[in-house]
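Figure 3 (text version): structure tokens given as input.
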């Protein structure tokens, strides 16, 4: 009985070491320098889904997000934000059976003097999903969910690039 418990603990410890060795880390865990805080997000409105995701992730990583009119040490500018949907395929009756969703933006980081800390970089994500015309309401919810996930992925990529370049 004791030997079985030791084997289980050994396997669990081995698995944890493998995960650590391959560079695995929890999503959202990004080490950004405290010198960029407080940070203002420019280019998108405060009620925009991307703004909400960015501010949540930044705060979760110890970065204070400055509001309009507040002093900020850094400015994260989001520009060229695009959110599109296009038809990928249709059936014989002309009904759409597959859509492609696109989310993209360009970001850059500047200090309070306007000096470039991270150069402008475009990011783009694309996902597709099947459309069943008989479940229109459910498909709209599915599209909204996919878009929120894509915005989270976009934010994660922005933060990862900031971490790598600061």
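Below: residues designed for each position.
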């Amino acid at each position: 009985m004791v030997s079985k418990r030791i084997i289980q603990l050994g396997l669990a410890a081995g698995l944890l070491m493998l995960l650590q060795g391959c560079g695995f880390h929890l999503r959202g865990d990004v080490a950004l320098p405290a010198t960029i805080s407080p940070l203002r997000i420019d280019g998108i409105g405060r009620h925009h889904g991307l703004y909400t995701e960015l501010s949540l992730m930044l705060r979760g990583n110890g970065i204070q997000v400055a509001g309009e009119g507040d002093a900020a040490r850094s400015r994260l500018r989001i520009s060229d934000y695009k959110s599109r949907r296009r038809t990928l395929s249709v059936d014989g009756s002309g009904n759409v059976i597959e859509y492609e969703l696109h989310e993209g933006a360009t970001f850059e980081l500047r200090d309070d003097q306007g000096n470039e800390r991270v150069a402008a970089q475009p990011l783009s994500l694309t996902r597709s999903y099947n459309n069943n015309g008989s479940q229109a309401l459910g498909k709209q919810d599915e599209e909204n969910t996919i878009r929120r996930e894509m915005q989270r992925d976009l934010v994660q990529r922005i933060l990862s690039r900031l971490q790598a370049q600061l």
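The longest helix spans residues 136-165.
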